[in-house]
Design brief:
eight-stranded mixed beta sheet, single chain, transferase, alpha/beta
Length: 403
């Protein structure tokens, strides 16, 4: 059985994701689609709209055969580490290809860019440092340095100012660096760009636009054109049963308490908190009543919104620099859900997998897995509402979903 991997957050699952699955299957002639999916906290440093179990079921009902969890350490990391953890897992579960959406739509420019960056690595890194000394954020410094080494060439390089191209480049980089068997494939991202608002004349909207519409308008039914009916039903059921969606606005009271309860010295021990920003975070938390006010206080040219949110995620979950440096690679494959076809694939492959397959978290003891369980408990704590109380231990109670 030929397997193709995709790297997803599905926050929430929409028609663009459905297109990605169908095109990935078609372009690679895959029998099986395996999604490595972030858990309850995401790469942009924010809580997921709905939990990983709901998002898993959305994916399985829309054509994914197996969903495995990208551990917290990698799911909330900068792009290169996010990509490395994802590719490691897709390689470990035996995928033949991985397929990602990009603004570029062709794989050759990614390969050319990897080659030129690798060839000029020393100059590239020195240039990044110089731009950062001028006060640029890391992503902007990266792009300026990249422009320097590619501007005088006739070769077609990928545009690394585009968000999906950036992630795609890091996927390719990760596969090349581990000399992976898995082969990269890309498809053109269609209609909606990464940050676009919902456009009701279209059938595809970005996940960012959909989330914004949910929080601004509150009407999930109005989003019916942008997602499969099964995804819409899951969102409606979530709203009816839980009453609130995951966001920093919802989590702000607990996050604020966590920051103020900590000493400034303690804040500096959390992953990605650097260069004295802990002082600003502490003072802003004391005086700001809302998350929006807080972000307005701490946002600067040097730190992107995403970078600050990742710091806050790690503060909220208690994830330290020490813990970050202790986990370099995935140590298990955790199955969140599968179809019967996916089950057949795993039964056929499980004796030859390079990492242990985990379906019940109580069955193994692993410090990387402990971080996921801890993060899930804190995620559900942040969703406490008048409608429902979220008990801890959901990772122990929920077996893999089978459809």
């Amino acid at each position: 059985m030929k397997a193709t991997g995709i790297i997803v957050e599905h926050n929430p699952f929409h028609n663009g994701h459905l297109y990605h699955i169908k095109e990935s299957r078609k372009k690679t002639a895959a029998d099986i689609i395996i999604a490595v999916m972030s858990g309850n906290f995401l790469q942009r440093g924010e809580p997921a709209l709905v939990n990983k179990w709901t998002r898993t079921e959305m994916a399985l009902k829309a054509g994914v055969d197996i969903v495995i969890e990208l551990p917290y350490v990698f799911a909330t990391a900068q792009a290169s580490d996010f990509a490395r953890g994802s590719i490691d897992l897709l390689e470990a579960i035996g995928c033949d290809d991985f397929c990602f959406g990009s603004e570029e739509g062709s794989i050759e420019p990614f390969a050319h860019s990897y080659e030129v960056i690798t060839t000029h690595q020393e100059d590239y890194q020195n240039s990044i440092k110089q731009y950062m000394k001028l006060g640029l954020s890391y992503p902007k410094a990266l792009n300026e340095a990249y422009t320097e080494i590619t501007s005088n060439s006739e070769i077609n390089f990928v545009d690394l100012s585009k968000p999906n191209n950036i992630l795609g480049y890091h996927y390719l980089e990760a596969a090349y660096q581990i000399n992976a068997h898995i082969k990269p494939v890309t498809i053109q991202r269609v209609v909606a760009n990464y940050h676009d608002d919902v456009e009701h004349s279209q059938s595809i909207a970005s996940a960012t636009g959909i989330r914004k519409a949910i929080f601004d308008d509150g009407s999930i039914e109005a989003l019916a054109n942008f997602m499969p009916q099964t995804s819409l039903e899951h969102l409606l059921n979530w709203k009816d049963s839980i009453g609130v969606f995951g966001s920093w606005q919802q989590f702000w009271p607990l996050l604020r308490f966590t920051i103020i309860r900590s000493s400034v010295k303690e804040l500096a021990t959390y992953a990605e908190v650097t260069e004295g920003i802990e002082h600003l975070i502490y003072e802003a938390a004391k005086k700001c009543e809302t998350f929006e006010e807080f972000m307005a206080c701490v946002k600067s040219k040097r730190y992107t919104w995403t970078r600050i949110q990742r710091m806050l995620t790690h503060i909220y979950t208690g994830f330290t620099w020490e813990a970050l440096h202790s986990h370099k690679k995935p140590t298990y494959i955790r199955v969140l859900g599968m179809t019967h076809n996916g089950q057949k694939y795993l039964n056929h492959k499980k004796k030859n997998l390079s990492l242990p397959l985990v379906s019940r978290v109580a069955a193994i003891k692993d410090s990387l897995l402990d971080l996921d369980i801890h993060a899930s408990d804190l995620y559900h704590l942040g969703l406490q509402s008048n409608k429902i109380k979220q008990p801890a231990g959901s990772d122990y109670r929920n077996p893999p979903i089978i459809i």
